[in-house]
Design brief:
- The chain is mainly alpha-helical and 58 residues long.
- It has two helices and no strands.
- Helix 1 runs antiparallel to helix 2.
């Protein structure tokens, strides 16, 4: 679970950086990378929910 949280934090940091580059400097490539990070975050959040539910049943 801790490893999953580390992955989520790292991916969110990447998303935040790229989204800032897009919004502040108009960098279209950064927007694409931010979108990719957002999709990855979605997958990680789904995995977190699954693991969290399993942990709570113990």
């Amino acid at each position: 679970m801790k490893e999953l949280i580390k992955k989520i934090n790292a991916e969110f940091e990447a998303f935040s950086t790229e989204a800032s580059l897009q919004s502040e400097k108009g960098n279209k490539a950064a927007g694409t990378r931010a979108g990719k990070s957002a999709l990855e975050l979605s997958k990680l959040f789904k995995e977190f929910r699954k693991v969290s539910l399993e942990e709570s049943k113990k």
